[in-house]
Amino acid sequence: MKKLVVLFILLGSAFFVNAGEDPCSPKSFSITLGAGVRNFSDEEFKDVYEKTPLVYSVDIAIRIMRSLEVFLHTDYLSIKGKTTYTHEDTTLKITPIELGIRFLIGFKKSCKQKLLPYLGGGVGYYMIKEEFPGGTPLEPVDEKKVGFFAEGGLRFYLMKSVFIDAKVKYIGLRSEDNIQMGGAAYIGGIGFSF
User: Fold this and answer.
1) Residue 182 buriedness (CB in 10 A; 0-12 / 13-18 / 19+)
2) Residue from 19, 13, 12 nearest 159 by CA
């Protein structure tokens, strides 16, 4: 808890130091903390995991050109459900490490624009665990798969170093049994540029 408080104090200081500056002036590094929901494309997952799972994410980006950034993204998804026929308890956890590139559309040298749309995509390494607690005969799943993703979003700059981020992301991912484990994610967050 103390570490979280220190993190917010440091990030909050960046918020006040840069108050009133041009929101479009580029910064080379940003971090975005987010939360959202994830849907699955496969109907089998919708039957087992009826609720829409929450996702908590961290996105770290480095600007390599005025309108282009490379980013590293990870998030955490954990949801409980019940198997279709035997109604056994089950838990699914997916943790990705994604590397991508993001194009910031319409980024200008000097402006007062506060809305900045973007498009991005890349590749991810997904760690998938599905467990069946309670001594069931079902075998747990522990897979590590490579998948792809595409995203589109919008940043709203409150000031030069602070922005609100909203994005839609599609993940293409198949398990070893050829089950579609990808789907759409809707994530909102707050970002800080340095």
Assistant:
1) buried
2) 19
Provide the pLDDT for residue 183. Answer: 93
What φ, ψ does residue 17 adopt, rounded to 5°?
-65, -35
Q: From the centroid of its chain, how far is CA 85?
A: 32
Structure tokens given for 41: 């494309």
pLDDT (tens digit per residue) in 104-130: 987 665 456 688 899 999 999 999 998
pTM greater than 0.85: no
pLDDT per position as a tens digit, 47-66: 888 788 999 999 999 999 98
DSSP string covering 121-136: EEEEEEEEEEE-TTT-
- The residue type of 20 is G
Domains and CATH numbers, the chain: 2-193 (2.40.160.20)
